[in-house]
Design a protein that fits this description.
1 helix; 10 strands; alpha+beta
């Protein structure tokens, strides 16, 4: 009696067929998870950039300006303590988004403060509400370049505005309110993403 019995060809084909069906059913689910994570990662990075800008305005008693450069998937967000503003797309030169952390403009210790869309595959950024001055806003933010976000240290207020971060199937919105609050939410009619409330 031979006890070394292996699989027959039919048994092997059945196992391969069942495995193929399982993989086929799992792939779309993995794609959705990856897509949701990418959209969430981009929106959370924007949120963190805005929170850091806001905290720097309070800490330094100085307005902080935030530039949103919309350009498909090649977007950028950066902030600066220069009242003339900055260009988040510029990585070197006079218009870069830098902050001089010791407030001494004569030294070369300014740090580049930006995030780029190229770090978030297939995520586009679009402007929904242009940044504008609320009536109560005073100080350096009132003279800041048009279209930039600005956090004013005097009253803790900010220019209001909204940007969306889109993948093929998901969308998250980053909002800045007049009181300087920053929210990440799912716009009305869009697919739900766990962990985010509706706008």
């Amino acid at each position: 009696m031979n006890s070394n019995r292996g699989f027959t060809l039919v048994e092997l084909m059945v196992v391969i067929g069942v495995a193929a069906i399982g993989i086929t059913l799992a792939v779309p689910s993995f794609r959705n998870i990856i897509e949701r994570k990418a959209a969430g990662g981009a929106a959370e990075a924007a949120y963190e950039q805005l929170q850091l800008a806001k905290s720097q305005a309070v800490k330094r008693s100085k307005p902080i300006l935030v530039d949103f450069n919309v350009n498909g998937t090649d977007w950028a967000i950066g902030f600066t303590d220069k009242l003339a503003g900055c260009n988040a797309e510029d990585s070197s030169g006079a218009n870069t988004c830098t902050v001089d952390f010791d407030n001494d403009m004569g030294t070369a210790d300014s740090f580049l403060m930006r995030i780029q869309g190229s770090d978030y595959k297939n995520i586009t950024m679009s402007q929904q509400v242009a940044f504008a001055n609320p009536v109560a806003l005073t100080g350096g933010c009132t003279t800041a370049p048009a279209g930039t976000a600005c956090f004013d240290f005097v009253r803790g207020l900010a220019r209001t505005g909204e940007f969306d971060f889109d993948s093929a199937n998901y969308k998250l919105r980053v909002q800045v309110t007049m009181l300087g609050n920053i929210n990440v939410c799912v716009p009305a009619g869009e697919k739900k993403i766990p962990g985010y409330n509706d706008c």
